[in-house]
Design goal:
2 strands, 236 residues, single chain, two-stranded antiparallel sheet
Length: 236
Amino acid sequence: MDILRWLFEAQIPVGGSVLILREVLGNIFGLASALGGMRRKVWAWPVGIAGNLLLLTVFVGNVFGSATPATLWGQAGRQVMFIIVAVYGWQRWQQSRRAAGTSTAIAPAWASTRTRVALVLALAAGTAALTPLFDSLGSYPPVWADAWTFTGSLLATYGMARGWTEFWLIWVAVDIVGVPLLFSAGYYASAFMYLFYGFFTLAGFIVWWRASRTQARTAASAVKIETAFPDPAVSK
């Protein structure tokens, strides 16, 4: 109990303000999870879940008496959503790794044009639908930004679980809106994390883009070899 009390009460003085230790630790776990995701490692999912649990207690500021009392229901809700989708992603990546027999969990691929359009429409529709809900719950303004980050995070996490390279770009869209929101609400550790993560997601996109190109070339080479040297058993 003493450890839990310390965890919930610990703060880091920074200038004339303080950082909540849980917020700092949660973002460190989040960064580690993102690094694992970029390398397509299964451990990225459970590490991310640990960070989500910590951040959940931070963003429901009024409930846990945080030093920064502004409540961001979208940010809090996205932590719950992360955990749910992470369980799905964790299972999917484990299955994919076992099926492929490789150290990496999944092969990056581009989403279809239809899927891309659906993602854009889902981001817009989700933001519009959740804004009045979060507003009624007393979320910190501008409420649409909270709804945007929630919806975008849901789509990006699902895209990561599916292995779509575009999920990194969705994170960029989330960060563009999320950074100003977090700074204005006083969640400085998360804001700086989002700012850094914006550049990190661009790097992750390049890594997955290159991996998808390599995957495509390998598949094309396999087709050429099969065409040039047909199986004798089949020809008979």
